[in-house]
Write a structure and sequence with these properties.
Blueprint (H helix, E strand, L loop, with lengths): L7 E4 L13 E4 L15 E4 L8 E4 L2 E5 L4 H5 L9 H9 L5 H4 L4 H7 L5 H8 L3 E5 L5 E5 H4 E3 L2 E2 L6 E8 H4 L2 E7 L9 E7 L5 E6 L6 E5 L5 H9 L12 H20 L9
Parallel strand pairs: 1-3, 2-3
Antiparallel strand pairs: 4-5, 5-10, 6-7, 6-10, 8-9, 11-12, 12-13, 13-14
Helix pairs in contact: 2-5, 8-9
């Protein structure tokens, strides 16, 4: 849509250019969210695409995904043999959007918007990813994605802070994963996204998003029993109600999906399971 209050759009190519960000300035990665709603409090946009960041970069430490990497680029990531590879595509498909949106929406923007149903939040929380944040004061900060998002559209980001990249550690990329999503309609916004992870050392992680106002990550030193997992889910207190699902429904379906995941990851690695 037209943003009638925007007077300037600047393509930034150097970090120093971000220092002049005023109170009526916002940064954009792809702009799919900014251009979907009025933002009368803004008069300037800074386009991060000018940095030309490499979308995906592998190293011995894991995978670095640029904040400006689009959903389309992430979904098309070549299979390098890492066990968790399919989870990236699964989370991309959780976004309710056309192919046009996939080619514009960015990983960093999806996290920074902090919508409960943000699938990049789901991905980052499940794989222990950390956001590399360029702070407005010139410092760098690595913040776990699961902690960066603090509520429905709220984060630890201050005005002038910019997400540079999302860092996925090697140990999580080598883990087995199981993914479940549910919505009130076949193509509806996620009412719950539940992702399980079984690390090579036997540790079990369950990430719950979309059903809660912020990511909930449940950790166990080993695969939990059904009662242990159910008790941990019942202890979560951040369920919420909106047009995409009631809090009690979300709580109930997460319990069902989590048990499916527990059973799937308990099977031998090559025994199949629900995709």
């Amino acid at each position: 849509m037209d943003l009638s209050t925007i007077q300037r759009v600047r393509v930034v190519r150097e970090r120093a250019e971000l220092a002049a960000m005023g109170p009526r300035t916002a940064v954009i990665g792809g702009g799919s969210w900014v251009f979907s709603l009025p933002h009368d409090h803004l008069d300037e946009l800074l386009d991060l695409q000018g940095f030309g960041w490499e979308p995906l970069r592998w190293s011995a430490e894991g995978l670095s995904v640029a904040a400006t990497c689009t959903f389309a680029e992430l979904a098309a990531m070549p299979d390098t043999g890492r066990t968790a590879h399919r989870l990236f595509f699964q989370c991309c498909t959780a976004l309710l959007g056309s192919f046009k949106i996939w080619n514009v929406a960015t990983v960093g923007g999806n996290i920074a918007n902090a919508l409960p149903a943000g699938p990049m939040i789901s991905l980052g929380a499940a794989l222990d990813a950390r956001a590399l944040v360029w702070r407005a004061d010139g410092s760098d900060d690595l913040v776990p994605v699961a902690e960066l998002v603090t509520g429905n559209t709220t984060t630890l980001l201050e005005h002038g802070d910019v997400i540079r990249s999302i860092e996925f550690p090697a140990h999580a990329l080598d883990a087995r994963t199981a993914y479940r999503k549910i919505a009130l309609s076949p193509l509806g916004r996620s009412g719950a996204v539940v992702i399980g992870r079984l690390d090579r050392d036997g540790a079990f992680v369950l990430a719950v998003t979309a059903a809660t106002i912020r990511p909930e990550v449940l950790r166990f030193p080993r695969a939990p029993s059904a009662p242990e997992l159910a008790a941990a889910i019942d202890a979560v207190g951040t369920w919420f109600t909106d047009p995409h699902g009631a809090a009690d429904w979300r709580h109930a379906v997460v319990g069902v999906l989590a048990e499916e995941i527990r059973e799937e990851l308990a099977r031998p690695e090559h025994d199949g399971g629900v995709a």
